[in-house]
Every structure is written in C-alpha cells, then in structure tokens.
Amino acid sequence: MDGKNRNDIKIGSDVSIVLKQDQRSGKLTEGVVQNILTKSAFHPHGIKVRLESGEVGRVKKVL
Asked: Per-residue pLDDT tens for 4-56?
C-alpha cells in the first residue's frame, strides 16, 4: 500500500514516511503511527501522520 488513501492507515500501523527536510533526497523514516493528521480520504503525496517518535511526514509505504 502506498499511503495515499487514509483508509489504509491505522493508528499503531508500521509505516515508512518522508520527512519535510528529506523530500528532496527521498530518505524514508520508519515508525509507528500515533496520529493521522490529514483529514481528507486521499492525498496524492501521501497521508500526513505523526509517529510515536514525534516526527511528522507523509506516508510513502504501509509496512
């Protein structure tokens, strides 16, 4: 799953996200979803989430 649909992401899911500062390089950060920040059902760049580590980014892959 590519993280563009809100229904694919649940609190507690393991995901790979791209942080704002890593968007150019495409470096992914893995973690567990604490909050889902995007309200819409779909976002073309990925649903924005906050990880349990406190990092915020857009989901690129649901693990």
From this structure: 999 999 999 999 999 999 999 999 999 999 999 999 999 999 999 999 999 99
Domains and CATH numbers, the chain: 6-62 (2.30.30)
Which residue, 20, 29, 31, 48, is CA-closest to 59?
Answer: 48
Q: What is the pTM of this model?
A: 0.93
**Overall size of the chain counted in residues:** 63
Q: Which residues pair with 28 in a beta bridge?
A: 18
Query: Would strands 14-19 and 56-62 be described as parallel, antiparallel, or unpaired?
Result: antiparallel
Q: Give the C-alpha separation, 53 to 25, whole Å.
A: 21
